[in-house]
Amino acid sequence: MPNRFHLDIETDNVESETARLIALGAEQISQWQECCVLRVPGGHLLCVLPVESDPDTFRAQAHVWP
With pLDDT > 90 as the criterion, what percentage of the chain qualifies? Predict the structure, then answer.
């Protein structure tokens, strides 16, 4: 059965987040405008997107990786 969902990851640094996910095993399969589309080892798709949320909401809810 084909995968039926994908995940959007909103970030203030698309290039760095894409590189981090590739280092964890994802594969970049395309780019659309400022968004990178990746396939993770389990086969699911995810999109790395530039910040689209309200800036205050993004700052309050963003996870910062160590």
Answer: 71
